[in-house]
Amino acid sequence: VSCQYELAAPFFKKITINLDNGKTFCIVCNGYEQGKYDVCRIMLNGKVLKSTFITHEDITNGGTLQFDMK
Question: Is the distance from CB of 60 to CB of 19 less than 8 angstroms?
Answer without folding.
Answer: yes
